[in-house]
Amino acid sequence: MNVLVTGGAGYIGSHTCVELIEAGHTPIVIDNLCNSSAKSLDRVREITGTAVKFYEGDVCDETALEKILSENAIDCVIHFAGLKAVGESCSIPLRYYENNLGSTMTLCRVMAKHGVKKIVFSSSATVYSGDNEMPLRETSKTGNCTNPYGWTKYMCEQILRDIAKADPEWSVVLLRYFNPVGAHKSGKIGEHPNGIPNNLMPFISQTAIGKREKLSVFGDDYDTHDGTGVRDYIHVVDLAKGHVAAISHAAKNKGEAVFNLGTGTGYSVLDMVKAFETANDIKVPYVIAPRRPGDLATCYADPTKSREVLHWEAKHDQTDMCRDTWHWQSNNPNGYDE
Ligand code: NAD
Ligand code: UFG
Q1: What is the per-residue pLDDT for 194?
Q2: Ligand 1 mean position to 82 CA, how many Å?
Q3: Which of 39, 44, 56, 84 to mutate to test the pocket of ligand 1 (most atoms within 8 A of CB)?
Q4: Rounded to an integer, what distance in angstroms lies between the CA atom of residue 156 and that of residue 141?
Q5: Cα(326)–Cα(280) distance, rounded to whole angstroms?
Q6: Cβ(180) to ligand 1 under 6 A?
Q7: What is the distance in A from the centroid of ligand 1 to the CA of 286?
Q8: Host H or E run for residue 231
Q9: Residue 133: alpha-carbon gap to chain centroid
Q10: Is the CB of 239 inside a 6 Å radius of any atom of ligand 2?
């Protein structure tokens, strides 16, 4: 299939381009590079031997999308483009709503005009309400989001669900990611957050390489096996393969479907620190710090539905996640910057 990948120069998008190419599909990328570098797509070419057609542009820009859908016979869209920093979304909420909702609505309008009615959307475990039992199933309660970013994902899901309800020709696949980590095993593509990382794994790897003095472990008094927060970390290559499965599902089924992309296993912050130290034979200095506001003790998926319906499951383990994160970080200490 010819797959329009919005936000395809980003962390998950670039890994998905590799997996799409390896599965025989043709990714066509639009990205405004607000949180990425076009060099990621050069690296995708180095890995796969295939150049990715790239349009630098904004998904909120109808004219830019018109051009792409006129020039390419798109079969399906994977919509990654979006702003994703939880803290930033609390200080500039309007920017988050404009970008994340605006891009989704403009994209769907232009798609419908061109008769393209298959979309896979990057949603998040953050749409689940904090008062659910674990593990989280697709039927678990959603809403009560704790920040504007989470609400944008919740609202985009609703918009897409309504589109699928109104027009039975649409196929909408909502993918709820748990905690993506790791990098392609080549060490050529990976995650390089701007500034101080918010997320655990980039903070661990930047501490290991000496860019950060020490990791702050946010809370050691949670009701978990060692008191630190437990999450469902998933290797980004497994996540990327989940998108290949999702476009096959969209090609064969109409209507709306929602899937968790997680492993079903939770690891604590200290489990991840120890696994990283062991896998890479390197120390990660840390201190115990106060809890981070808004954090849950535990969050992990029930991935049964993805396994049964998408025929997808995560294959990489915690050691792979830690080794591949470090391989990318140590080969590219400044990300895609020289
Ligand atoms: P990323 O920032 O690396 O990728 C997003 C890409 O979208 C970037 O390349 C950015 O430049 C681009 N972009 C943003 N707004 C755009 C616009 N209006 N027009 C064109 N391009 C635009 O982030 P990622 O980690 O690869 O995340 C991809 C998607 O997955 C996002 O929607 C994110 O919210 C979602 N998600 C990520 C995580 C995570 O922990 N990484 C978890 C759950 C969901
Ligand atoms: N943590 C630390 N120190 C840090 C960073 C994180 O102890 O410097 C802890 C957190 O308290 C939490 C765990 O590590 O217990 C994971 O935190 P992350 O920030 O890496 O991930 P979250 O689970 O908080 O959130 C991530 C994304 C969200 C997404 C969610 C579910 O940031 O956007 O996963 O997919 F919604």
Answers
A1: 85
A2: 4
A3: 84
A4: 16
A5: 7
A6: yes
A7: 29
A8: strand 230-231
A9: 23
A10: no
Which pLDDT score is estimated for 54?
A: 98
Q: Which ligand is nearest to the CA of 191?
A: 1
CA separation for the pair 321, 233 (Å, rounded): 8
Q: How far apart are CA 87 and CA 283, in angstroms?
A: 28
Weakly modelled stretches of the chain, pLDDT under 50: none
Atom of ligand 2 nearest to the CA of 84: 33
Amino acid of residue 300: Y
Q: Which member of 11, 149, 177, 300 is catalytic?
A: 149
Closest by CA to 125, choosing from 110, 112, 138, 111, is 138
Please report, as a single letter, which amino acid is at residue 241. Answer: K
Q: How far is CA 137 from CA 125, 159, 311, 326, in A?
A: 10, 21, 17, 31
The one-character DSSP state at 141 is: -
Report the half-sphere exposure of 114 (CA within 13 A, side-chain side).
22
State the pLDDT at residue 94. 98
Amino acid 287: pLDDT: 98
Amino acid in the structure at residue 118: K
The rounded distance, in Å, linking the Cα atoms of 25 and 122 is: 19
User: CA 200, CA 221: separation in Å to the nearest integer?
Assistant: 18
Q: Which residues on adjacent β-strands are paired with residue 119?
A: 77, 172
Could you give the dihedral angle defined by the CA atoms of residues 181, 184, 189 and 191, in that order, rounded to the nearest 10 degrees? Answer: 0
Distance set, CA 283 to CA 35, 73, 121, 214 (Å):
29, 50, 37, 10
**Best residue among 35, 67, 147 to mutate for probing ligand 1, ranked by most atoms within 8 Å of CB:** 35
